[in-house]
Amino acid sequence: AAQELRWVELGCEEALGAGTEGPRAPQARGRLLQAVWWGHLGLATKLLRQGASVEERDHRGRTPLHLAVLRGHVPLVRLLL
């Protein structure tokens, strides 16, 4: 929870942009995509309340829901349905 609040304070871009290396990490810098990729339910909830789009897609065309399923983040899947 404290980490999520820190990310919100930083505006998410810098904090969520860090550590996105790897062959399957989303390359788009969308805040919701990044929050879902890393499994941050609280942050994803806040972003959705602030108007983040569940239709946003990464460079492979994956939505936040696709990423939640891919990563096995069941609470996020429920949130995004």
Automatic annotation (TrEMBL):
Keywords: ANK repeat, Repeat. The keyword Kinase does not apply. The lineage of its organism: Eukaryota, Metazoa, Chordata, Craniata, Vertebrata. It comes from Gulo gulo. Pfam families: Ank_4. ANK repeats lie at residues 60-81. InterPro entries: Ankyrin_rpt, Ankyrin_rpt-contain_sf. This is Uncharacterized protein. It comes from the Eukaryota.
